[in-house]
């Protein structure tokens, strides 16, 4: 479904991704773990078209998207929830969700009700400004906004960042539900244990390159992963 083939990406002279190879099959949850600065967010930004690869290919269902503009990639069915949420603080919850649907993919009312079903608090807060929400509610809004584009693939960048444990549990449970409803998910997450327990497979990114890959079960039992990312 999504194939990243030998992708290199640069910020000026700095090489942030070095020959990254990742494959995600339809219906999977795949985790991308690694330390700060490993290139995880850069990988998502490159898939989304915010950063174009300097070499290599990114394919979605056999179509090359490497040179596409971000809005065209959204049209291809890929939506990203960025690190730090990046909602529109001076727009209401409803207006934020409207922005997510700007391309007109699918039925607006149906998608809105689906978001409200997943996150009932957003319906209660629909006329409230996004900037007045709690951190957990803002994360719900960021995910809801991404779902309003009716994605086939959802890219999640650090969805648990800065949240209380009870909210992290709720967010991860909802991610699992979204996946069960047919959305393929690529998850970048500092909480490696939680991410691998949620996902089917995982990749370890170090200094811009994939150094390990495998089933989540295998990575959870891998000695290097346990020592470097699971605190054991």
UniProtKB/TrEMBL annotation:
CDD domains: ABC_TM1139_LivF_branched. Keywords: Amino-acid transport, ATP-binding, Nucleotide-binding, Transport. Coiled coil: none annotated. GO terms for molecular function: ATP binding; ATP hydrolysis activity; branched-chain amino acid transmembrane transporter activity. GO terms for biological process: L-amino acid transport. InterPro entries: AAA+_ATPase, ABC_branched_ATPase_LivF/BraG, ABC_transporter-like_ATP-bd, ABC_transporter-like_CS, BCAA_Transport_ATP-bd_LivF, P-loop_NTPase. It comes from the Bacteria. SUPFAM superfamilies: P-loop containing nucleoside triphosphate hydrolases (SSF52540). Residues 2-232 form the ABC transporter domain. Belongs to the ABC transporter superfamily. PANTHER family: HIGH-AFFINITY BRANCHED-CHAIN AMINO ACID TRANSPORT ATP-BINDING PROTEIN LIVF. This is Leucine/isoleucine/valine transporter subunit ATP-binding component of ABC superfamily. The lineage of its organism: Bacteria, Pseudomonadati, Nitrospirota, Nitrospiria, Nitrospirales.
